[in-house]
């Protein structure tokens, strides 16, 4: 089979901020993780297992951010994830009985019952609640390349005032990746695809070979890349930058122009948690007492109609549409790559990066789409092949040298989502804490015992405060109070700990509480803020 005309790299960015609240029996924001596992990460693993079992070749690039990995390995989250699935199954069982005589909604309820039972079996029985182990095994089989991200998804260009803060985001992430997956990462998803000239030096120090930028960062590179975004460039530090292809991204990403807006796909915004009488969902939402999504969504997008006019969801028809759209995506990439090969005079690479949660959580049929795409491409075309980006660089070691332009993805492409009048107050606190962290390293270069634990916890609190998720949430006006609260709490915890270290009166009981609650990076060494390995 001749597949020499070009390559396609599918890239998934798997990230959630670290949310852990053991002080509450239930906490609404912890559902972000449970919903993502049930609707994205378990289905993606299931899809890849099916490909592997059927001997279908595939190549997928994916990062698991360190904060998401921290939740995947935490016994607290494992126990609550199992409880979430059990509660969902119980609700689905009651719904199946309630709707057994309903010819339209009864089959949908039964579909959810069967699916949730399968997901629980995957999580508890097959994977033993160990998602990191499941991803590692898939990586070791060869189809999946796992890369890293910033330690807590800190927007690196916004942190560059203190180089130690940028280095810590990269170094802690690389070390944590090696701890989880047994090897150093060769690639990194720069948080928010945020790039500035010079950040690649920190990547090179950790052995990272490549990263991804949005298309305009390559378009305005110096000198201008001869092949646009359809070939990587090597930065002066030797780390490669791949550019995002706008055409393939928009075709999948856009809910209006892309596939996810199709009338037969599941409607995200209508959920039984809000449709049912409260007494019927009380057990699912307790003890918060507030309505919330259940994941049982019985209706399809239908068209431009109000939520109460949506037509019932038909899982089989939606799956058929996913297969059709996978074929259409494959056809479009064939034509795109053929045209590019002719015009460029060389084999192009098309890099198509997406948020992982698009596949399953936002676009319920997304994992089916990916599975169909890999299957169709393996047998129904000979124009392109899928690639892991590290493999591409191994096979194509000679590329143009250029300096990408500063930028990010997101609205307008230049950080405005994360730095604006609603959230810019955050950064002066982050700058102050980063400066103080480096001072603490100078003051206590070889701390031991409780003081060392406290300084390590200072490093964790600083990293958690730096998460770009909090400014993003403030901008999008979703869980704004929670985002403000998280920034404030991490700043105050750092400040109190630093004061206790300097006065040599560390409250060991309180420190233990923080180590349990903010339990990321168990092996962190605070001296990372002074370049310590």
Q: Provide the β-strand percentage band.
A: 5-15%
Please bin the fraction of helical residues.
40-55%
What is the helix/strand order? EHEHHHHEHHEHEHEEHHHHEHEHHHHHH
> Number of DSSP strands?
9
> What is the mean pLDDT?
95
In DSSP terms, counting alpha (H) and pi (I) runs of 4 or more, how many helices? 20
- CA radius of gyration is 24 Å
List the helices and strands and how they pair.
Blueprint lengths: L5 E9 L16 H23 L6 E5 L1 H8 L1 H24 L7 H21 L4 H11 L2 E6 L6 H4 L3 H19 L5 E3 L9 H7 L4 E4 L1 H5 L13 E2 L5 E4 L2 H8 L18 H4 L2 H8 L29 H30 L4 E7 L10 H14 L4 E3 L2 H7 L29 H19 L5 H17 L3 H8 L3 H24 L4 H10 L16
Parallel strand pairs: 1-2, 1-8, 1-9, 2-3, 3-4, 4-5, 5-7
Antiparallel strand pairs: 6-7
Helix pairs in contact: 1-3, 1-4, 1-5, 1-14, 3-4, 7-8, 13-14, 16-17, 16-19, 17-19, 17-20, 18-19
Short description:
The chain is an alpha/beta fold and 533 residues long. It has helices spanning 31-53, 66-73, 75-98, 106-126, 131-141, 156-159, 163-181, 199-205, 215-219, 246-253, 272-275, 278-285, 315-344, 366-379, 389-395, 425-443, 449-465, 469-476, 480-503, 508-517, and strands spanning 6-14, 60-64, 144-149, 187-189, 210-213, 233-234, 240-243, 349-355, 384-386. It is 51% helix and 8% strand.
């Amino acid at each position: 089979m001749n597949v020499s005309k070009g390559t396609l790299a599918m890239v998934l960015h798997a990230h959630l901020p670290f949310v852990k609240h053991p002080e509450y029996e239930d906490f609404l924001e912890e559902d972000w993780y449970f919903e993502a596992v049930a609707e994205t990460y378990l289905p993606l693993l299931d899809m890849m297992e099916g490909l592997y079992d059927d001997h279908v070749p595939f190549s997928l690039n994916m990062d698991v951010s360190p904060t998401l990995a921290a939740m995947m390995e935490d016994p607290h989250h494992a126990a609550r994830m199992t409880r979430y699935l059990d509660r969902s199954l119980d609700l689905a069982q009651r719904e199946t009985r309630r709707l057994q005589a309903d010819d339209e909604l009864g089959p949908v309820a039964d579909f959810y019952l069967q699916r949730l039972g399968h997901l629980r079996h995957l999580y508890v029985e097959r994977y033993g609640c160990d998602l990191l182990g499941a991803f590692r095994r898939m990586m070791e089989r060869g189809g999946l390349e796992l890369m890293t991200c910033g330690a807590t998804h800190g927007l690196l260009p916004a942190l560059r005032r203190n180089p130690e803060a940028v280095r810590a985001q990269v170094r802690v992430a690389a070390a944590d990746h090696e701890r989880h997956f047994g090897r150093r990462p060769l690639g990194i998803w720069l948080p928010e695809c945020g790039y500035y000239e010079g950040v690649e030096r920190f990547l090179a120090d950790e052995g990272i070979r490549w990263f991804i930028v949005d298309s305009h960062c390559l378009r305005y590179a110096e000198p201008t890349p001869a092949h646009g975004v359809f070939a990587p460039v090597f930065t002066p530090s030797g780390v490669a930058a791949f550019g995002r292809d706008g055409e393939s991204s928009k075709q999948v990403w856009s809910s209006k122009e892309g596939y996810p807006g199709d009338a037969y796909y599941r409607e995200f915004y209508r959920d039984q948690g809000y449709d049912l009488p409260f007494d019927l969902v009380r057990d699912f939402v307790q003890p918060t007492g507030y309505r919330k999504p259940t994941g049982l969504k019985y209706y399809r997008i239908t068209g431009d109609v109000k939520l109460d006019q949506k037509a019932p969801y038909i899982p089989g028809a939606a799956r058929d549409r996913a297969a059709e759209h996978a074929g259409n995506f494959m056809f479009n990439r064939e034509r795109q790559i053929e045209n590019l090969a002719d015009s460029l005079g060389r084999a192009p690479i098309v890099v198509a990066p997406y948020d992982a949660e698009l596949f399953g959580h936002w676009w319920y049929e997304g994992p089916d789409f990916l599975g169909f795409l890999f299957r169709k491409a393996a047998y129904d075309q000979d124009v392109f092949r899928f690639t892991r980006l590290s493999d591409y660089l191994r096979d194509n070691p000679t590329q143009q040298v250029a300096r990408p332009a500063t930028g990010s993805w997101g609205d307008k492409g230049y950080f405005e989502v994360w730095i604006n009048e609603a959230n810019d107050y955050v950064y002066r606190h982050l700058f102050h804490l980063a400066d103080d962290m480096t001072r603490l390293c100078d003051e206590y270069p070889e701390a031991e015992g409780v003081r060392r634990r406290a300084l390590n916890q200072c490093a964790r609190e600083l990293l958690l405060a730096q998460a770009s998720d909090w400014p993003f949430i403030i901008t999008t006006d979703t869980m704004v109070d929670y985002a403000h609260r998280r920034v404030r709490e991490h700043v105050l915890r750092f400040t109190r700990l630093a004061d206790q270290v300097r006065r040599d009166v560390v409250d060991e009981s309180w420190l233990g509480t923080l180590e349990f609650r903010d339990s990321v990076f168990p092996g962190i060494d605070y001296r990372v803020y002074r370049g310590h390995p």
